[in-house]
Description:
Blueprint: H1 2-30, H2 32-36, H3 46-74, H4 76-96, H5 100-114, H6 118-128, H7 131-141, H8 143-162, H9 169-188, H10 201-205, H11 211-214, H12 220-224, H13 227-258, H14 262-289, H15 296-342, H16 347-359, H17 364-375, H18 382-401, H19 406-424, H20 432-441, H21 449-459, H22 467-486, H23 492-503, H24 508-520, H25 527-539, H26 544-559, H27 567-619, H28 624-632, H29 635-653, H30 662-672
Amino acid sequence: MKELHKQVHSWRIKIFCITWLAYFGFYLTRKAFSAAKNNLDVDVDETTLGMIDSAYLIAYALGQFVLGATADKKGPRFVLLAGMLGSIICAALMGVFGMPLMFMVLMFIQGLCQSSGWAPLNKNVGNWFTRRERGRIMGFWCTNYAAGGAVASTLAAAGITWSGGDWRFAFFVPAACLLVVWFLVYKFQKNKPQDLGFPSMEEIKGEPVDEDDEEEKFSWQEIIKKPMVGLLGAAYFLLKPARYAILFWGPYYVAKKLQTGPVFSTVISNSFEIAGILGAILGGYISDKFFKAKRMPVCILCLAALTLVLFSFDRLVTHTNKQVSSDEIQSIHREVRALSRRSAEWVPARENLQQLVQSGEPTAERLALVLRSISEIGAASTKETIQIEGLKVRLSKILRSTRLNNAESADSYKVRLQPLLEEVRVFEESNAVRLQLESLARLKKFESSQAIKKIFLLIQQTDMLHQEHIRVLTEMQQELLESMEDRGDNMSFFYLMKLEAAASHFSASEKEKIVAFLTKHKDFTSPQSKIVFDDLSQEIAELKPLQKEIDRFLLIRSHAPAESLNISHYVMIISLFLIGLFLYAPDSVISSMAAVDFGGHKGASSAAGFVNGCGSISSIFSGIGVGYIAQNYSWGVLFNIFGSMTLLATLILIPKWNAVPSEHQSNRKTKES
């Protein structure tokens, strides 16, 4: 008997580790698209991004119901390995294709593949651990999706950074990592103790066995008709959209609110998942230790706290951010006043800033006026160039914070394009410039490399555009470049594009050398690329002006202040941490421990699939609904909706404070009598 316990204990450790790693791995490919959103070189607005997320969530919801029941009939292993392999292939293909329609199709398939993870793995873990220990064990086990979410975002963002700003590596790197996990699961995963010749865990531990588990016949409909399974599904329907909204939109929301770069935005949003690790552990531990394996009390208490945090979250972040922007404007005003005493060129900027400070509320128009007046100042030295660029970067951050969605930003650029469009429309329909301008004006997102490339191609049409048109387009291009540089996006593509355009005017041998450089080097930020380009400039004298421009870009980039935390960042981190703490505890308890408890061994996967499927149905709102509300209303409205939903979930669970599975209820009554 001692040898049996030793062998079973060894296998339980293996199963815990491999199943934890398996669901952790699913998140690597699940969050790839979320991390890639800010860097996509594709014309998509927030609503379209939301529709792509919704395609994933629709498939994920459908898959939960179907694959949960399939895992009860066929066993978790078959469903798990097939789904994980499909997820790897989908992620790799998303890195290959760059079209919104293909994204939508592949995200739908990705959703089906991802749904093969949660329900089968919960059944797998439930087979190896009894109900009385499930709270503690599965509390730790449920840290997989919190940890997976945190690591996945960072890994995808790192892939973008390592590749020099290429969004495709947000898919390639996670897919490669998940392939390694797939091989480990294939080698070490086992469905249940009986597969290795051991008795069931209830027999080994001397705990009551669910009578339904002793029946050979399995009925999926019977499992989902259990009252508590249905109630858990309803509560999860109300809870899950908030988690998925932050998972899918967290880095994007942080970047919009705080004007941080892609890596910094991801790191700040990770406080949500880090807190989730702690929340999942505490939820399971407290339900076992203080409530004697009753799951509902901890859910009710955490949901009530979560409701309060959600209602106050966006208001608090917005208020703090406005105060930080106001303090920054005051600081810039003091610097410009000091500079205006030394040079009359700074006087217009000082006067515009004075009006901005006196107005109280910084508007986009006033900020743009200040930016233009600083841009017109001629730098007499390298130090002054860096000083001017630094002020422009700081003001650009505040300007973008007044435009919290792409539509407002795009509209401001379209207004400036309108006079150009009206003038060129006198040409024939086939006129290339008119068609290019109309294509630019149709963009829904201007702060992107796609918009800059379109503007660049227009500026090359010097024989068909007036100097005034070129001036307007050049100003727009420069503003967008500064915006992208400020956010930490890679701008080398712009100079590579210039080099490619210049090559068309050179001799065949010179063009061949430039093409060879472009094939091998994808950015100018690495020292090796810059050395090679400098050597090329020595051979081709016509590249000297571009070399000077790149030197200036790199000089300014090297002196740009590193992103640092301020009070608005701390408020965002603490708020997201509290949301993660109070959300992941009931989330893990409802969708995992309670679902397995009330589903029983035979129906554990079906119950977990049903509960998670109910949550996934409402999470479809986290796709298109979040994008639509953020673009047309505000993030504050969105978090108020989530707060109302968690409040309702709290109310429907309160009557079930003392609920436990029926076989344990009868066992307790027998002991009491």
